[in-house]
């Protein structure tokens, strides 16, 4: 996601009551939450998180984003909406996952993650085997992993990886029409739909 470096973004985020930095995050910050829990990885400018948190006030949403400048844009939207069911985290999800216990999430969501097409960058793909295993462990039994992408190769790759895990159900929709109940469109999704690109969706149930 191309967003100019925003001076003051880190400070703005640090002063928000619903923000944590991944380096300071501990499981105790969410241990008291009894609602269904959702993790969105790569929040971007936050439209998905905002819409979903508004639509599902009984769920608690955790959104993580690597880029503080981008996350500060999402944070402004969330702050204006006065939501009480969201926590945003600045940082790399690879450092968050080890902090989390197993069987935690009802949903783990990956929307239009960077495809990292070069083989030598495979480890950075957010559906590479190490990441996929971590997600599987951190989903509750009956929990759902949702992956959407505009990229065919990344979709095929991700399906192969996810298919090697013991999900009880795994579906791969190569022309997703936006009709999955627990979903809303993201910034990237809207851009690609406008260009006529088909959206691919993989849903895995543990
Ligand atoms: C292509 S954008 C998609 C943004 C949004 N989900 C959407 O669909 O519009 C991918 C986002 O994931 C973030 N990201 C990439 N790798 C990440 C990681 N390891 N941990 C957290 N966020 C990551 C990027 O900074 C970027 O904002």
Structure description:
The protein is of the alpha/beta class and 206 residues long. The chain has a single domain, classed as Rossmann fold (3-Layer(aba) Sandwich), CATH 3.40.50. Helices cover 30% and strands 23% of the residues. The chain is built from seven helices and eight strands. It has helices at residues 9-14, 47-55, 68-80, 93-96, 129-138, 152-163, 187-194, and strands spanning 19-21, 37-41, 60-65, 86-90, 105-111, 139-149, 169-173, 200-205. It has an eight-stranded mixed β-sheet, sandwiched between helices. α2 links the parallel β2 and β3 (60-65). The protein is globular, with a radius of gyration of 16 Å. 37% of the residues are buried. The model has no long low-confidence stretch (mean pLDDT 96). The protein binds S-adenosylmethionine (SAM).
Quick structural gist:
By secondary structure, the protein is of the alpha/beta class.
Descriptive labels:
single chain; about 210 residues; alpha/beta; Rossmann fold; 8-stranded mixed β-sheet; 7 helices; about 25% strand; globular; binds S-adenosylmethionine
Secondary-structure topology with pairs:
Elements: H1 9-14, E1 19-21, E2 37-41, H2 47-55, E3 60-65, H3 68-80, E4 86-90, H4 93-96, E5 105-111, H5 129-138, E6 139-149, H6 152-163, E7 169-173, H7 187-194, E8 200-205
Parallel strand pairs: 1-4, 2-3, 2-5, 3-4, 5-6
Antiparallel strand pairs: 6-8, 7-8
The structure holds S-adenosylmethionine.
